[in-house]
Task: inverse folding
């Protein structure tokens, strides 16, 4: 597909062809991360490294654990005094049950202008965009103003201990000079109804607090009264946690998102007005409310239970896991609330913990991200938003790198991008990949 009239840029046809090929071929490399170390990213890492090397770069492959491979390469900029930029994507994907899919999840099939398979939107598409842009630059000899560090990581879909966490803790020198980074998930088309196309750019992430709950009781026969039943104590705590309504906490990123989205709906939102009702406002925003409704408060969702081994035996021990998320600044409230909800009979600890993030939306970087999207879709409107989950930006923040979610895609009406994350029949339109390459190329040239 050629560039649209009036939008001609430096991206060549080979880059547009390669982004489709790379997305498809990366999907065919099964990098399923089942958690607990059950994953092998090395084949995908070698695939990426080979294509970076062919573009004249010197990629480094790094592992904390055999087979859990990361790739890092640096593109030297023309201005040695300029701060460096990190561009990163992860190579692992979540599991997929082939029986549930229209096509095999690791086929990478290209059908009717759509690339199918696990990772098509999370996030082998962005990995492919990065490779296509870098190789396009190599063909023309283009060099960016600032150093650009490319990183393809392992283990993002679990703890990141073998991926970005390992890189940040053990190989910080590879990211020297990096002050900002871009990765998933943002700059995708969100159709808000009535012809309104939004492009949310992530400028924040809720913190991660995965919890392990433990109840200790007195083992005994199932036919006898037992007031020290670990299962009963744990079940009560889990029920309290699942039913709890967390109070609203509006962070600067979410405030900016609500204000801008409301304005695009013709609504003036004064969040400082006494008695301002956020829920009432969200009800007026239609589909666009989904961009903010999960990030206006902390959350805690019970996800796993484990107790007992026989129906007529009361176990002396029971455990549960809770997926907790914290808005920036909400960590103390989260901890104090969990202490109260679990009560005296149940203890809890962090199974996995990562910080919440915020990035400025009034900074030059955000303005350039916005300009790159709107150059290629003048009828679209970029808005900031906070991700309800997390990305590798959390680990890279340890190095002082401010992260933005920016993996651009122009999507047709009815294409539910967010539902495809970790969902069945994950896929991405070829035209969306072409748009992404153009936007990413333009941003990196002007960053």
Result:
């Amino acid at each position: 597909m050629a560039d649209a009239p009036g939008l001609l840029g430096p991206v060549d046809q080979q880059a547009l062809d390669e982004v489709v090929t790379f997305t498809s071929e990366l999907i065919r490399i099964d990098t399923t991360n089942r958690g607990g170390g059950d994953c092998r990213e090395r084949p995908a890492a070698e695939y990426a490294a080979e294509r970076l090397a062919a573009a004249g770069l010197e990629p480094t492959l790094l592992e904390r654990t055999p087979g859990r491979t990361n790739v890092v390469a640096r593109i030297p900029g023309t201005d040695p005094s300029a701060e460096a930029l990190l561009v990163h994507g992860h190579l692992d994907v979540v599991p997929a049950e082939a029986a549930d899919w229209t096509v095999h999840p690791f086929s990478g099939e290209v059908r009717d202008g759509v690339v199918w398979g696990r990772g098509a939107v999370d996030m082998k598409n962005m990995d492919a965009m990065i490779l296509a842009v870098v190789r396009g630059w190599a063909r023309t000899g283009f060099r960016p103003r600032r150093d650009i560090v490319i990183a393809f990581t392992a283990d993002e879909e679990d703890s990141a201990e073998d991926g970005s966490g390992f890189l940040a803790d053990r190989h910080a020198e590879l990211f020297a000079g990096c002050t900002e980074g871009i990765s998933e998930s943002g700059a995708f088309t969100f159709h808000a109804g009535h012809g309104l196309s939004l492009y949310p750019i992530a400028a924040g992430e809720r913190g991660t607090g995965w919890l392990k709950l433990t109840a200790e009781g007195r083992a005994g026969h199932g036919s006898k009264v037992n007031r020290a039943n670990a299962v009963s104590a744990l079940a009560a705590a889990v029920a309290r946690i699942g039913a709890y309504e967390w109070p609203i906490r509006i962070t600067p990123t979410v405030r900016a998102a609500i204000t801008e989205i409301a304005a695009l709906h013709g609504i003036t939102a004064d969040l400082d007005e006494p008695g301002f009702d956020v829920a009432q406002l969200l009800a007026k925003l239609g589909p666009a409310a989904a961009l903010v409704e999960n990030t206006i408060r902390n959350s805690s969702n019970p996800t796993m239970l484990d107790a007992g081994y026989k129906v007529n035996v009361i176990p002396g021990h029971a455990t549960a896991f809770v997926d907790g998320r914290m808005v920036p600044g909400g960590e103390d409230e989260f901890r104090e609330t969990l202490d109260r909800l679990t009560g005296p009979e149940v203890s809890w600890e962090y199974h996995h913990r990562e910080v919440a993030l915020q990035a400025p939306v009034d900074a030059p970087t955000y303005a350039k991200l916005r300009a790159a999207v709107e150059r290629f879709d003048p009828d679209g409107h970029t808005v900031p938003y906070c991700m309800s989950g997390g990305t590798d930006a959390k680990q890279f923040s340890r190095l002082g790198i401010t992260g933005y979610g920016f993996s651009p895609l122009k999507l047709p009406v009815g294409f539910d991008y967010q539902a495809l994350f970790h969902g069945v029949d994950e896929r991405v339109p070829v035209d969306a990949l072409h748009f992404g390459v153009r936007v990413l190329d333009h941003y990196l040239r002007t960053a």
Notes: Residues 1-8 have pLDDT under 50 and may be disordered. The radius of gyration is 23 Å. Residues 181 and 403 are 5 Å apart (CA to CA). The first helix runs from residue 13 to 28.
